[in-house]
User: What shape does this take?
Amino acid sequence: MNPKYSNLFLAIAGPVLLWLAWPPLPFTFLLFIAWLPLLFIADNTTSWKKFLGYTYIHMLAWNLLVTWWVAMSTVPGGLSAFLANSLIMCVPWLLYFFSKKYLSRIVSLLALVAFWIAYEYIHHNWDLSWPWLALGNAFASRPNWVQWYEYTGASGGTLWIMMANVFIFLAYKIYRSEGRTIQYFKYIATFFVIISLPIIVSIFAVKRTLTLHHNKYNVVVVQPNIDPYQKFDTNNQTEQLEKLISLSRAQVDANTALVVWPETAVPRFTNEDDLQHDSFLTPMWNFLKQNPQLNLLTGIEGYKAFDSRVSRFAKPFPDGQGFYESYNSAALFDSSNVQVYHKSKLVPGVEVLPGFLSFMSATFEKFGGTTGGYAKDTVAKVLRTTNNSFNITPAICYESIYGDYLSNFNRQGADLICIITNDGWWGNTAGHKQHKDYARLRAIESRKWVARSANTGISCFIDPYGNVVQQLGWEKEGALRQTVGAFITETFYTEHGDLLSRIMIWVAVAFLWLLIFMIFKKRPIK
Assistant: This one.
């Protein structure tokens, strides 16, 4: 086959393998060979510009196949995200392409591993963050394979996938050049050890005993199934609140300590400094006074007023009298008090616009985003129930993808993860299924229960080993009640965060310096 067309075929074959391996599809084992097509392209291409072109096709196809549903909420915004994210994902592979020209094959491949994990970590921690396609997330539907995430987090899964691909590629190269030599069989054996040993350890390792903070209590998660495109209509907001209360009341019993409503369940733009006196919330306050043993965690879209512009997120009131910040918040109520956490990991373009892109605010507003963006909390803030039942990690929607960020809450004594989300923007696509499965990884990393309330589904309870105990399916209305333990056992991951990725950042820097040194050593300075 013409090399031009063979490379194009490979640039499409790679993302197809990744798509088939990604939740909710069942062919997870394909992850361990999914990078081979791109490695073959790197070997078949001499021009970095051509390699960049094929790599971009690969990354764009991967983004489209796995996350095409992003465009369901905003087509222009989705396409912009696909195009930008795909280009960013090319960077570690382009560094590999240059590395293999100056470093040995195995050294350049190990550099690729470090470059990719470093890229994933950086992409988790900057203003244009989009960690949905972090490789370790692909095991979200296989929790029995990755019980060791309590040590490494999802970045350990990324390392696992990358190393497996490296050794099967090395075996292939030896086979093509030397045949079935001893070295070939060593690489093959290493490949099978790499893919099988973590699974064996995960399946057969004795589950550790988890320590309870106190007695177990019932938790209720509510799924109102309200169309997200209609929920902010002022004509039906009172009915929405009554539905939430009615669904909650049907499941609450004497042992219920906590009720969880989804993201922006309170759809009215609410003054967070005056929640106790907001007449719209009177039915909710009455419900809590009738059930004084309860705490209620709910999503609200709130604001605070200021006399001056306190941040770049502050916007002037329409009448010109002062400024306000708006928030996507989680609020924990009891019968007389409220604690509030502001979502910190905001969706780029939709919920926040990085400062260096502020000149595009009008364009992003047309995509369905916010002009000034939401303001956010800058530190993890545990919400502590006043009935002494749970210390809550409040993960608002997109935040549940960030294992390293959520580990900060555990270090402050959190013993229950509550995910509140509104996945209905994407319709009945793979998006809400992937999002639910990613929550299973957060349970394993922290060895904590997860209570997940999703507006249109999937609401569920997940035990500390990543098993979904019960769930409400897509577009179902109802509520679930589950007896939940507040486990205080800490894991290596919750104590240290994503230590593996931070180490790999330094390894990647070392490889980069080695590459620069070799380039100048082999190319005379003029």
